[in-house]
Write a structure and sequence with these properties.
By secondary structure, the protein is α+β, with helices and mostly antiparallel strands. The protein contains ten helices and 14 strands. The structure holds methionine sulfoxide.
């Protein structure tokens, strides 16, 4: 019964969404069609915006507008990147009761280019409304949504000497901004000279901004691994010291799962423990101006990376 209903609904949604590209318009009608077909209590979307889930198109009573990462059923589905079925909301630790009438719930993440961009949340006034059948069909339905415009994101990568690292990373399509500096150290306003003593705890780091619709974080990290020896501790090329350690520093907690996955996949290739530090960004100070785009300003300047890597970066495309 439920299967047949979903099968028909899926077909209707697929044909309605064909050729449509607007996120709000399509989420609105998807919410309305699901809601109408099953007469649920609340059916709608939250989309990821500014590091939280923000209320989107929905059908039903007034709802909470903001949900944090890892919070409630919605934040859990986002964090764990999986559908969460809750037969009894009272039994779900941290459940956010937007409406006291809600008894059971399902939340399906909308994953695009490896990133959770939104969640579909459905509430029922009865216990145990949702099961694997709902999960499977709703996952198929959200896969019909067009790509959502994604806000620019940032990541901080330490890859040995930042002169070559910046030149390399900047060439990758989708990278929109780079800046070299010092990350995750212990002093205030470090200068290059201070960091050079290796006593400050800072790592030479490249700050990247990127357009996730063109280059995903996974892709950028795979490119990053091509430019480092991840098994080498505090040494890349001829450069030695803690300031030349390799590290991935993130500001968005949702990035952690993606980073851990890429690092684990790389570790398998080497069969050795990797020395790449993965940490939240604690601090970052831009380096002095003459270090910015150093190799553009000084084409024959020192660089620990081979020229072939720059050619590779120019051609690389995120095709997944
Ligand atoms: N119950 C959800 C909050 C959203 S409302 O159900 C519309 C949660 O715990 O995430």
């Amino acid at each position: 019964m439920k299967e047949e209903k979903y099968e028909l609904l899926y077909k209707q949604i697929a044909s309605l969404l064909e050729g449509e590209t607007d996120a709000v318009a399509t989420m609105s009608n998807v919410a309305a069609m699901i809601h109408d077909a099953f007469r649920f209590w609340w059916t709608g979307f939250y989309h990821v915006s500014g590091g939280e889930l923000l209320l989107g198109p929905f059908q039903g009573p007034v709802a909470c507008m903001h949900i944090g990462y890892g919070k409630g059923v919605c934040g859990t589905a986002w964090k764990e990147r999986r559908t969460v079925v809750v037969p009894d909301v009272e039994q779900f630790p941290g459940h956010i009761a937007c409406s006291s009438e809600s008894r059971s719930e399902i939340v399906v993440p909308v994953v695009q280019r490896g990133v959770v961009v939104a969640v579909l949340d459905i509430d029922s006034r009865e216990l145990g409304t949702f099961d694997d059948v709902d999960a499977q069909w709703l996952e198929k339905i959200v896969a019909l949504l067009p790509p959502m415009p994604l806000a620019e994101q940032e990541i901080y990568l330490a890859a040995g000497c930042f002169w070559g690292a910046e030149k390399y990373l900047k060439l990758i399509e989708g990278v929109t901004f780079t800046e070299v500096g010092f990350a995750n150290g212990n002093t205030e306003n470090p200068t290059y000279k201070e960091v050079y003593t290796d006593q400050t705890g800072y790592a030479e780091t490249v700050k990247l901004r990127y357009n996730p619709a063109v280059a995903s974080l996974r892709f950028l990290l795979e490119m990053y691994f091509k430019a480092i020896d991840p098994t080498s501790l505090n040494k890349q090329g001829e450069d030695e010291g803690t300031r030349y350690r390799t590290g991935i520093y993130y500001t968005d907690p949702a990035d952690r799962a993606i980073i851990d996955k890429v690092v684990a996949d790389e570790a398998k290739k080497y069969g050795l423990p990797l020395q790449v530090e993965v940490e939240p960004l604690r601090n970052f100070y831009p380096a002095e101006e003459y270090h910015q785009d150093y190799l553009d300003k000084n084409p024959s300047g020192y660089c620990h990376l081979p020229v072939a890597l720059f050619e590779l970066a120019k051609k690389a495309k995120d095709t997944k």
